Amino acid sequence: MGINPLPSIDLFWSSDPFFRNNEIAAVMPIKRFKKILENVHLNDNEGMPPRGAPNYDKLYKIRPFLELINKACQNNAKNTKSQSIDEAMVKFKGVSSLKQYMPMKPVKRGYKIWIRADSATGYVFEFDVYTGKRDDKTTEVGLGGNVVKRLTKKLIDEGFQGHITFVNFFSSYEIMQFLYDKGIYATATVVNRKDLPYLYKNNNKGKKLKLDLGEMKWRTKENVAFVLWQDTKLISFLTTAFHPKLDKTFCDRKQKDGTKMAFQCPLTVVQYTERMGGVDRFDHLRCSYDVSRRSKKWWFRLFYFCVDLCIVNSFLLYTTNKRVHNPLSQLHFRLSLARGLINGYTSGKRSLEREPQYLKKKPKMSNNSQKKIGVDKEIRLSNVGIHKHEKIETWRRCRMCSTKTNNKRSKIQCSTCKVALCVVPCFDLFHSSI
Predict the structure, then answer these.
(1) In whole angstroms, what is the distance from residue 4 CA to residue 1 CA?
(2) Could you give the angle at the alpha carbon of 252 between the alpha carbons of 249 and 258, nearest 5°?
(3) End-to-end alpha carbon distance in the chain
(4) Which parts of the sequence belong to the PiggyBac transposable element-derived protein domain (predicted)?
């Protein structure tokens, strides 16, 4: 359904051939599909703590499922050396205390999810649904740092040695130094932090720092470097991975006349640009064919997000497998996955007209041979000599040749099989191997 979206879920079973999808409609009736959706539960509602209780959890209805998916994501892939942390939005316009309003995002209303993903591919290692301010009175200024600590806790416990990239919402001097002390390098953009150098504070107060295009200023404090670089506008970074004085490179910028000119650029800027797009890559793959749709249950959007996350992660593992020489596109991967999960199942009686076009085959055998006999071979074909003609009082349909369009009746039946048959040729055909 994510590959072939329709305005209403009922249209997949529509009698109008413009909307109807035979491959979906053949699996089960619409009533059965809706009944299954009605009864989907991911936790025991009777054990839900009351609101205000110390162990109350806003995500209680879906918590076991979230933990299961998080665990599966971490167990099925090894941590890469370069990862990024960012936020993703799951569209939701209903009533929920978890709903956030982000006016600058493409998805303005919905659930906010913190994600730690691989920088190169977008594979999601861990995610956490934002439920609002915590009881420990965490301020919004310190929220970003706490998110980074939570998402990197398992990396620290495993002795991870690599690089983490994140945006200015999460960055501060304290979190950069904290990660460095734990053996993790980090790079992030930064704006409006109290612990920034005096150089940046003067710039913020209206005394514009005059820098030429490509010029940079930098300061260090312990193991954290602050880099200010002039691009089309001033941009600032915090890093513990690249020294601003030693690590420099060049980048091309287009001029007004269309030509490109190389300018000196800190390596911090280039590496941040390369490493920061992990979550955006995942979001792009997820939103291309997402299975999400409207529901009366507030947590269904999060459930659909987890389904899409599993599909995208599986696709990324499949494409990065060296044994796969000609990998499928995500579209054909999802189609192949869906057909594999369905595996020819149908809850109704399958007819030739309901089959997809590519499965239709012309029957090679005669109509009589295709007909279901209804009597076991052990009775019908054994001891043929005891099967004799027997007259009956009423006309009954011949078990061998009678059809809906060609009604044939007989007053003769087999004395052993007790089925009505025409004397010639049905009686002999019925008791012979067909």
Answers:
(1) 5
(2) 165
(3) 43
(4) 1-315
Amino acid letter for position 20 = R
CA distance 169 to 191: 8
Residue 284: the pLDDT is 93
Express the helix, strand and coil content of the chain in percent, nearest 5 each: 35, 20, 45
Place of tokens 């987890």: 306
Asked whether residue 158 carries a pLDDT value surpassing 60, the answer given is yes
d(CA 352, CA 22): 11
Using the 8-state DSSP alphabet, how is residue 159 labeled?
T
- Quote the tokens at residue 387: 């099967």
Tens digit of each residue's pLDDT (9 = 90 or more) over 166-216: 988 888 888 888 999 898 999 999 887 777 777 666 655 555 667 777 778
Q: Which helix (H) or strand (E) holds 23?
A: helix 22-25
Instruction: Give the burial string for 234-244 (b: 16+ CB within 10 Å, else e).
Output: ebbbbbbbbbb
Residue 130: closest CA among 149, 111, 157: 111
CA atoms within 13 A on the CB side of 114: 20
Alpha-carbon Rg for the chain, nearest whole angstrom, is 34
Per-residue pLDDT for 333 more than 60?
yes
pTM of the model: 0.73
Q: Is 99 left (phi over 0), alpha (psi -120 to 50) or beta?
A: beta
Query: Which residue matches tokens 């002795």?
Result: 159
Q: In angstroms, how far is CA 149 from the centroid of its own chain?
A: 25
Per-residue pLDDT at 268: 86
Q: What's the rounded mean pLDDT across residues 110-130?
A: 93
- Separation of alpha carbons 155 and 5, rounded Å: 38
Do the strands 260-266 and 216-221 form a parallel or antiparallel pair, or are they unpaired?
unpaired
